[in-house]
Design a protein that fits this description.
Order of helices and strands: HHHH
Number of helices: 4
Radius of gyration: 15 Å
Strand content: under 5%
Structural class: mainly alpha
Distance between the termini: 31 Å
Number of strands: 0
Shape: flat
Number of domains: 1
Helix content: over 70%
Length: 83
């Protein structure tokens, strides 16, 4: 994957997930890790909304797994002092 594509992908996700690109570029590594973590949580929330709109309805196990992923991410964030 080339650097331009990676940069473009990050810029798109920053826009979609409502992260201020100026903040992202100006902050230190820990700040960027925190912002990326917020993007991850927002992605999981958006995925849940998308799943809720799916027809036919998805199995409850899908939502349980999504919640497990979110809890795991929150635990990592606590361990890394992101939250």
């Amino acid at each position: 994957m080339n650097v331009f594509f990676i940069h473009l992908s990050v810029e798109i996700w920053i826009s979609v997930l409502r992260i201020d690109p100026t903040n992202f570029k100006a902050t230190d590594d820990l700040g960027r890790e925190r912002l990326i973590f917020r993007m991850l949580l927002r992605s999981l929330d958006l995925l849940k909304v998308k799943f809720e709109k799916a027809r036919p309805k998805l199995d409850a196990k899908v939502y349980e797994e999504l919640e497990r992923l979110k809890n795991d991410a929150l635990n990592v964030a606590k361990d890394e002092s992101w939250i």
